[in-house]
């Protein structure tokens, strides 16, 4: 128990020691300091959506209809295992910076370098109430090699 108390006392001194040498800097010292503005975020993405359904209640000629996109996946392909596993999209280099141009300030989000695919397992046409059946499937859809590299989103007041 005595050792634990001593260890706790030593650990309480560590933050104070880290700040012990902080002091004012003069102009010549500041000339040697460099810094970076903004942040960079790296992440990965493998998402799935059970389904997406759009229903037209009055349809063509008053008959209701719906289109359902079933088993939606956003990833970088699948493993070749007996039970395939989604390969995440590596999203590297997302940046967030502040900018002022012509007196207008904005937040600029540089989208990360990411290449992947979007797949839809089945596309069904139904009457809007029944579940999609293989017999009324229009097939599947794959959008591959979409690339967001170099894209930005700018947010500003108006």
Give a description of the structure.
It is built from two helices and eight strands, in the order H-H-E-E-E-E-E-E-E-E. It is mainly β and 158 residues long. It has one domain. The strands form two sheets. It has a four-stranded antiparallel sheet, with no helix packed on it. A four-stranded antiparallel sheet has the order 2-3-6-7, with no helix packed on it. The longest helix is centred in the N-terminal third of the chain and has 18 residues, at 2-19. It is elongated and about 80 Å long. The mean pLDDT is 78.
SSE arrangement:
Layout: H1 2-19, H2 27-30, E1 39-45, E2 47-56, E3 65-75, E4 89-101, E5 104-110, E6 115-126, E7 141-147, E8 152-156
Antiparallel strand pairs: 1-4, 2-3, 3-6, 4-5, 5-8, 6-7
Give the domain tally: 1
- What would the average pLDDT be, to the nearest integer? 78
Distance between the termini: 62 Å
Taking all Cα atoms into account, the compactness measure Rg is 27 Å
Q: Which word captures the global form? A: elongated
In which order are the strands of the major sheet placed? Answer: 1-4-5-8
- The percent of residues in helical segments reads 10-25%
Unreliable stretches (pLDDT < 50, length at least 5) are: none
Total number of helical segments?
2
Query: What class would the helix/strand composition place it in?
Result: mainly beta
């Amino acid at each position: 128990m005595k050792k634990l108390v001593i260890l706790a006392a030593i650990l309480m001194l560590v933050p104070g020691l880290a700040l012990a040498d902080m002091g004012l800097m003069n102009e010549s010292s500041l000339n040697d300091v460099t810094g970076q503005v903004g942040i960079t975020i790296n992440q990965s993405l493998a998402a799935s959506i059970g389904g997406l359904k759009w229903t037209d209640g009055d349809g063509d000629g008053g008959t209701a209809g719906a289109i359902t996109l079933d088993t939606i996946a956003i990833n970088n392909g699948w493993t070749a295992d007996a039970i395939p596993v989604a390969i995440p999209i590596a999203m590297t280099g997302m940046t967030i910076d502040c900018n002022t141009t012509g007196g207008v300030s904005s937040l600029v989000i540089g989208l990360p370098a990411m290449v992947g695919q979007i797949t839809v397992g089945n596309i069904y046409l139904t009457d809007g109430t029944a579940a999609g059946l293989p017999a009324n499937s229009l097939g599947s859809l794959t959008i591959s090699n979409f690339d967001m590299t170099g894209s930005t989103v700018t947010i500003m007041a108006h």
